[in-house]
C-alpha cells in the first residue's frame, strides 16, 4: 500500500527529520556541524524558508522550518544534502551516500 502524498502548504511549519543511511553517523567533527549550519542558513534564505529550530545529533537532524512556497522545503533539503555529502566525501576521502 503506497503512502499518502505529503501535504505541503506555504507558511505552515514543518518538522523535518533527516537520518543517516542505516542510522550511521552523519557528523564526525565540530567542523562538520558548522559547515551544515552555514549551508542551512544560506539555502534557507535562498529558498524562502524560515528556520525556527534545529537539533543536530550524530546520526540525524531535526529541523523546524516554515517554507514561503510549497517547493521551498524540498529544494532546501535537496541542496543541503548535495552540498553536505560532497563536503564529507571530499574531507574524509570516501564515496557514496551518508
UniProtKB/TrEMBL annotation:
Highest taxon, organism lineage: Bacteria
Matches recorded under Gene3D superfamilies: Transposase IS200-like
Transmembrane segments: none
GO molecular-function term, one example from the UniProt record: DNA binding
Pfam families cross-referenced by the UniProt entry: Y1_Tnp
Stretch forming the signal peptide: none
GO biological process: DNA transposition
Domain Transposase IS200-like: start-end pairs: 9-98
UniProt name for this protein: Transposase
